[in-house]
Amino acid sequence: MNVFQNQDITRIARYLPHCQPMLMVDIIDYIDDENVDTSFEIKPSTLFVENDFFTEAGLIENAAQTCSAIVGQHYFFDDNKQEIENVKVVGFISAIKKIEIFSLPKVHTVIKTKAKLDSKFMSDDYQICTLQIEIFNDNELTLRGIMNLFLQKTTDEKI
């Protein structure tokens, strides 16, 4: 069951440790315990747009946010897929093991990002994971890579 299905952008922002203008995922198209597919429309006002192209930093940020949805979902939903209220999560890329960028998408395109969980270590308060990522622009492979993420629950009200 996709707990994120039919969520609007304001709801998606709740499940990622990011907010505007840093939010680089519009829709979570599919998610399970090991895979996630997302969509993101690149607008002229999007952070990391230069000369009408989405930069390398933007692609990497989109990939990281897509990946964080796989492991982050366990903080927001219980075993019965019921939403847990008032959860705050922080996260960051702890390592980029490999990134290949083949092209930069133009403004007004929608990129599709796919991530697959390779491994994870989970404690009560944090998770460390390794994920494979692919980003497509009009079915053309734009980025391929492997990265590590660190996610942690927090009680900081400022987040």
Q: How would you describe this structure to a colleague?
A:
The longest helix has 21 residues. It is globular, with a radius of gyration of 15 Å. Helix content is 16%, strand content 44%. The protein contains two helices and eight strands. By secondary structure, it is of the alpha+beta class. The chain has one domain: Hotdog Thioesterase (Thiol Ester Dehydrase, Chain A). The model has no long low-confidence stretch (mean pLDDT 84).
Task: Describe, in short, the structure shown.
This protein is 16% helix and 44% strand. It is of the alpha+beta class. This is ABC transporter permease.
Mean pLDDT: 84
Helix content: 10-25%
Structural class: alpha+beta
Q: How large, in whole angstroms, is the Cα Rg? A: 15 Å
The arrangement of helices and strands along the chain is HEEEEHEEEE
Q: Within the CATH hierarchy, at the fold level, what is the topology?
A: Thiol Ester Dehydrase, Chain A
Low-confidence stretches: none
